[in-house]
Amino acid sequence: MTTIIDGKKVAEEIRAELKNKIDWLRSLNLRVPGLVTIMVGDNPASYSYVTSKGKACNAIGMLSKIEKLDETATEQQLLDLIDFYNSSNDFDGILVQLPLPKHINEDKVIERISPAKDVDGFHPITIGNLVIGKDTFYPCTPNGIVELLKYYKIETSGKHVVVVGRSNIVGKPIANMMLQKKEGANSIVTICHSAAKDLSRYTKDADILIAAIGQPNFIKADMVKEGVVVIDVGINRLEDSTKPKGYRIVGDVDFENVSPKASYITPVPGGVGLMTIAMLLRNTFLAYIKITKQKLA
């Protein structure tokens, strides 16, 4: 019997918990956590993401601000804006929406964000702390995966986790998180990518398979074993004239054919994607707590 992992339900519970905490802060007339999102240019997908993050903040009572710069904005203008919010007392989290225009160095921008406000979890110091197992801000999508596994009480200790994809946003961080000797991890981890001559050799051995490669319906039923836990991170658009928008969203996993073999599986949409913003909100609240404690110390 396959259990469909309900990312919407888990994300809503996390948001509700955060809203209760923020309502309590407001009842005491205390400052509430704040998140600023910086966007450069007019990429429609980026604008959609930024808007949804702002709405999520407002829904739980968190202070939210969106800074929009023109496509022609210089790298220095963006760095100066980050410096401004690094020193701001009202905003605890800074998120720069990627991708950036080609004339702006993304690495330089990410490194300019104060690690204390790096709620996206992309700063090299943040990633370094993650790798060696120190307390840090975990990147939002990988952290959402771990939370789903914990929520459904899926055993991870000693299990073989196979990650398909090696991006800095999902593949590498989730692999390192699952390696840690702690609750919800302590796994045996294999990272697969395009250099694998026979990918199914690895995916068939997975107790937990995490697909994050950006290729629609790539993982087929003959690539997994019975009882596997499948976490599908992919969000892909496929043209579909029967849909009002002219497309439908699918994951990296052939859900229809893989799900009968799985013990647990995330749907797309409705799975990991909804957890990403919930984890961003939680990271911002954690940043607020850390910053507030430092000021009171």
Identify the notable features of this structure and list them briefly.
297 residues; alpha/beta; Rossmann fold; three-stranded parallel β-sheet; 10 helices; 11 strands; 40% helix; globular
Report on the structure:
There is one protein chain. With 297 residues, this protein is of the alpha/beta class. It has two domains: 28-115, Leucine Dehydrogenase, chain A, domain 1 (Rossmann fold, 3-Layer(aba) Sandwich), CATH 3.40.50.10860; 139-272, Rossmann fold (3-Layer(aba) Sandwich), CATH 3.40.50. Helices cover 40% and strands 17% of the residues. It contains ten helices and eleven strands. The chain has helices spanning 7-27, 44-59, 75-86, 106-112, 124-132, 140-151, 171-179, 200-203, 255-258, 272-296, and strands spanning 3-4, 34-40, 63-69, 93-96, 160-164, 188-192, 208-211, 228-232, 236-239, 247-250, 262-265. A six-stranded parallel sheet has the order 1-11-8-7-5-6, covered by helices on one side. A three-stranded parallel sheet has the order 3-2-4, sandwiched between helices. α7 links the parallel β5 and β6 (188-192). α1 (7-27) runs parallel beside α10 and α6 packs across α10. It is globular, with a radius of gyration of 20 Å. The termini are far apart. The relative contact order is 0.16. The model has no long low-confidence stretch (mean pLDDT 96).
Helicity, as a percent range: 40-55%
Shape: globular
User: What structural category do the secondary elements indicate?
Assistant: alpha/beta
CATH architecture heading of the largest domain: 3-Layer(aba) Sandwich
| Strand order of the biggest β-sheet | 1-11-8-7-5-6
Low-confidence stretches: none
In total, the number of domains comes to 2
Strand content: 15-25%
Secondary structure: number of strands: 11
Cα separation of the termini: 52 Å
CATH topology heading of the largest domain: Rossmann fold
CATH class of the largest domain: Alpha Beta
The ordered string of helix (H) and strand (E) elements is EHEHEHEHHHEHEHEEEEHEH
Number of helical stretches of at least 4 residues: 10
How would a crystallographer describe the biggest sheet?
6 strands, parallel
CATH homologous superfamily placement of the largest domain: NAD(P)-binding Rossmann-like Domain
Oligomer: single chain
Question: What is the alpha-carbon Rg in Å?
Answer: 20 Å
State mean pLDDT (0 to 100 scale). Answer: 96
